[in-house]
Amino acid sequence: MSSEVPKFKVMVTNHKVHPEALDILREDCELIFCDKFPSDRQEILEKCRGVDGMFWTTPHLLDSEVLDAAGPQLKCAATISAGLDTIDANEMKRRGIELGYAPYISNTAVAEHAIGLMIAAGKRFHQGRLKIKSSEWKNWHIRWMLGQEIRNSTVGLVGFGGIGQVIAELLQGFGVKQILYTCRHKNPRGDELNAKYVQFDQLLCESDFIVVACPLTSDTENMFSDAEFQKMKPNCVLVNISRGPIIDHDALYNALKLGQIFAAGLDVTVPEPLPANHPLLNLPNCVITPHLAASTYPTRETVAKVTAHNIMRSLRGMEMLSPAFTLPQKERITNSGTE
C-alpha cells in the first residue's frame, strides 16, 4: 500500500472480497466496508456518502436512491456480475457515471455447471440419493432407475452467446448426435461447433436435453410455460443456468409431476433463495443448486480483480477493462439527479 494519503474513497459492499482485489484498490484508495453480512441496504446508503467509487457485490439495487446518497462526486461503480440485473445502468449513464461489469469470465464455470446439471438430472442423482435415504436401494432390478445419456442425444441450446458456445464446445467430447441452438440470429460460430440454427419450436420438439443460456428480457420471461412443455419430448431434460423467471415454475412443476418431461436441473429459481417448502423441492426428478454456477475459486478471484481494475482505471482517468457502456469524455463530470 502506498505511504501517501489515499486519493480516492471506495465503498466495498462485502468485506469478504478476495484480498488480492482489495490490494489493487488500496494502492490509491481508502476502502469503506459494509460490515453486515449479508449486506444491508440501509448500511449501504449510509456508507456510500462521499465515495468516489463503489465495488458492488450485493443483490440490492444500485439505483437513483443509492446514487443520490453517494453524492455528486461519485465517478464510477463496478459489479462482480456478468449481468446488470441489480444495476440501473440507464440512470448511471444518464448521470455520466461509469459502470464496469465482468462479462465472459464465468463462461467456462457456468458451462461446466450446465453439463453437470444435464448429467445429474438425466442420471437421477437426486432421486437416487432419496432412494438410499429411504432404504429403497433396489439395483438388483435390471430396469430400476434408468436415466438418460448425453451420448447420441440431441442437445438444444436456448441462447448462443458466450456461455452457450462454451457449452457447445464442451459437448464435442460427449459424442452427441447433434446440437441445435436458437437465438435472434444465426451465429457464425455455430458452423464451427457443428451446431444447427433452428426456430424455438423445432428445438422444443426435437431436443433430448435443453439448456437455457439466454439473457432475461421482456421477450424471454416465462419463455417456458405450459404450451412449451407440451411440445417437449417425454424423455427431455431441461436445464436452466440463466435466470429463474425464464421458466414458469408452476408450469415446470406440473410438467415434471405429470411426466411431460423427464427431469429438470436448475441453478436459478424464482424467488432466490427458494423457500424450503417450495413444491419443486419435493420432486425427485428436479435437481436444484443455489445459484452456484459461477462459484469457483478461479472465477471468483478473477472477477474480483477485474472489478477492482475497472474501478481503479476509471478513477485514474483510464478506460475500464470491461465497461457496461461508453461515455463521451464531457459526460464524465458530475453525479447529479438533475440536469
From TrEMBL:
<dbReference type="Pfam" id="PF02826">
    <property type="entry name" value="2-Hacid_dh_C"/>
</dbReference>
<dbReference type="Pfam" id="PF00389">
    <property type="entry name" value="2-Hacid_dh"/>
</dbReference>
<dbReference type="GO" id="GO:0030267">
    <property type="term" value="F:glyoxylate reductase (NADPH) activity"/>
</dbReference>
<dbReference type="GO" id="GO:0008465">
    <property type="term" value="F:hydroxypyruvate reductase (NADH) activity"/>
</dbReference>
<dbReference type="GO" id="GO:0051287">
    <property type="term" value="F:NAD binding"/>
</dbReference>
<dbReference type="InterPro" id="IPR036291">
    <property type="entry name" value="NAD(P)-bd_dom_sf"/>
</dbReference>
<dbReference type="InterPro" id="IPR006139">
    <property type="entry name" value="D-isomer_2_OHA_DH_cat_dom"/>
</dbReference>
<protein>
    <recommendedName>
        <fullName>Glyoxylate reductase/hydroxypyruvate reductase</fullName>
    </recommendedName>
</protein>
<comment type="similarity">
    <text>Belongs to the D-isomer specific 2-hydroxyacid dehydrogenase family.</text>
</comment>
<feature type="domain" description="D-isomer specific 2-hydroxyacid dehydrogenase NAD-binding">
    <location>
        <begin position="115"/>
        <end position="293"/>
    </location>
</feature>
<keyword id="KW-0560">Oxidoreductase</keyword>
<dbReference type="InterPro" id="IPR006140">
    <property type="entry name" value="D-isomer_DH_NAD-bd"/>
</dbReference>
<dbReference type="GO" id="GO:0005829">
    <property type="term" value="C:cytosol"/>
</dbReference>
<dbReference type="InterPro" id="IPR029753">
    <property type="entry name" value="D-isomer_DH_CS"/>
</dbReference>
<dbReference type="InterPro" id="IPR050223">
    <property type="entry name" value="D-isomer_2-hydroxyacid_DH"/>
</dbReference>
<feature type="domain" description="D-isomer specific 2-hydroxyacid dehydrogenase catalytic">
    <location>
        <begin position="12"/>
        <end position="321"/>
    </location>
</feature>
